[in-house]
Amino acid sequence: MQNIVILDNQPLAIKFFNEFIEETFPKMFKLHPCASVESFFNLSNDLNITLVISELKLYQQNSFEPEYTFEIIKMCKSKSIPCLIYSNSPNPNYISRCIQMGARGIVLKISDLNHLATGIENLIKGEKYLCNNAKQNISFERMEKEKINQPIITKRQIEIFHLKCKGYSDIQISDALNIEICSVRKHRKIAREKNDCNNDELIQRINFWHPTY
Question: Is the pTM for the entire model greater than 0.85?
Answer without folding.
Answer: no
